[in-house]
Design a protein that fits this description.
about 260 residues; alpha/beta; 9-stranded mixed β-sheet; about 25% strand; globular; binds manganese (II) ion
């Protein structure tokens, strides 16, 4: 098995190293990660500037681009082979509910998925690296189990996994969940810089709006590892019918009086 590892916190992040250490004897692993922190970069690709790949002393390769850039160039020419699995993380902080839209950790995994490769995004719920060793061990268990079940290297799928910051013994089982929802983000923060110019800082993510039983928010709060299969189709299938009605009443350009 060949695994491509990336993340969004950058190639120096403890979560990336922990994931690498946890998987290095499970498969042939390659790490290609952003040079800088790229949290909240989603699936962004750098199309207006060149990308450079450098190798760190530990063998990790780093790119002056986004998480999706890393996986994209790895799969479109940088790697001489096609990996069986793309894993991303372990992220410094939760990627639950609406976070998945913004997350660079999910973005890196999703890029693999879009290229037809199974992919997993791993995140720790709290932003302090506490019990990172336990999270890495859980990640390893999941990858090993999926490999043993022959789920890797076949049909592509995309899994979003969030792990509570607990000691290994205190983490409960993997729990299949749907995504919860968050309230809208906090207000933007305005400050004045030393030159008198106003700066704006994007506010923190909102608190959970839907953390009912069955959601990732609920599972991780109870000590479980949440596991949500994601898809990319954003079509609102429930409302297609209702929109069809609206569209049927639209006046086309040719029918506009005097048009
Ligand atoms: Mn991050």
């Amino acid at each position: 098995m060949k695994i491509l590892i990336s993340n969004d916190d950058g190639y120096l992040a403890p979560g990336l190293l922990a994931l690498y250490e946890a998987l290095r004897d499970v498969a042939e692993v390659e790490v290609i990660a952003p040079e800088q922190n790229n949290s909240a970069k989603s699936n962004a690709l750098t199309v207006s500037a060149p990308l450079y790949v450098h190798k760190a002393s530990n063998g990790f390769r780093y790119v002056n681009g986004t998480p999706a850039d890393c996986v994209h160039i790895a799969l479109t020419g940088l790697l001489p082979y096609r990996p069986d699995l793309v894993v991303s993380g372990i992220n410094n902080g939760a990627n639950m509910g609406d976070d998945t839209i913004y997350s660079g950790t999910v973005g890196a995994a999703m890029e693999g998925y879009l290229f037809g490769i199974p992919a997993i995004a791993f995140s720790q719920v709290e932003r302090n690296w506490l019990h990172l060793d336990a999270a890495a061990r859980k990640a390893r268990e999941l990858v090993l189990s999926l490999q043993q079940q022959h789920a890797v290297g076949q049909t592509p799928w995309l899994l979003n996994v969030n792990m509570p910051n607990l000691a290994y013994e205190d983490i409960k089982a993997f729990k299949l969940c749907r995504l919860g929802r968050r309230h809208a983000a906090e207000k933007v923060i305005q400050q004045v810089n030393p030159r008198g110019e106003t700066m704006y800082w994007i506010g923190a993510a909102g608190p959970a709006a839907d953390d009912a039983e069955g959601t990732d928010f609920h599972a991780t709060a109870q000590g479980f590892v949440s596991m949500t299969p994601l898809k990319v189709d954003l079509t609102d299938h429930d409302y297609l019918q209702s929109w069809a009605h609206t569209v049927s009443h639209l006046v086309t350009g040719a029918e506009v009086p005097g048009g």
